[in-house]
Design goal:
single chain; mainly beta; five-stranded antiparallel sheet; 15 strands; 40% strand
Length: 196
């Protein structure tokens, strides 16, 4: 018949108990599992007796890590919502810490979206940032940023690309090249006219 059904696992303590579903075989009683930690409100999924994914109470998803990291946006480190983390294994030709966007019948696409509708001239839209660890914490070494190149409106979205690199002795990138909405390209200037 119709109606909703459910399957529940309840613990007697909400401060530190775990609710777990184990997947086992003759060699390993918990070679795979789904575990919910009621103390930290974290959901974990293990495959091949190793932790594969973690979802925390903020909705952050980490693949290959127990917690997503914090990385700089401008000068401020912010915790990321999704992280893929791992290492290169040359013996098995596996390169963890990578991600592919694959479309089988057309061009693959990666969309970087700003959805708040702010039409202000110069407002940043999105960025692709390359970050390195200096032995203590993380800093960007280069970045490609998209921004509004004029005030936007309905069906009117002028944009530009800014190319930034971090200079020797610095820990933040600065703009070195700009491609404007008019197609003008400037190197070492933020106001190019033609190719400058």
């Amino acid at each position: 018949g119709g109606g909703n059904t459910s399957f529940s696992i309840n613990t007697g303590n909400n401060s530190g108990d775990n609710s777990t579903i184990n997947f086992g075989d003759s060699a390993d009683a918990d070679v795979g599992y789904i575990n919910y930690d009621h103390g930290t409100n974290v959901l974990q999924i293990a495959v091949g007796a190793s932790l594969a994914a973690t979802i925390d109470s903020d909705g952050n998803l980490g693949l290959g890590t127990t917690s997503t990291g914090s990385y700089p946006v401008s000068a401020t480190a912010r915790k990321v919502q999704f992280e893929v983390k791992g290492q290169i294994n040359t013996s098995t030709n596996v390169h963890q810490g990578t991600m592919a966007v694959n479309c089988s019948n057309a061009s693959a696409a990666l969309h970087i979206v700003r959805s708040d509708g702010d039409q202000t001239n110069g407002r940043g839209i999105g960025q692709l940032t390359f970050i390195a660890n200096d032995g203590t914490d993380f800093h960007p070494v280069a970045s490609v940023q998209a921004a509004r190149d004029d005030t936007g409106a309905n069906n009117d979205q002028p944009g530009r690309l800014e190319f930034l690199t971090t200079s020797d002795g610095a820990n933040q990138p600065s703009e070195k090249m700009r491609l404007t909405m008019a197609g003008d390209l400037g190197i070492g200037t933020s106001s190019p006219k033609g190719l400058t």
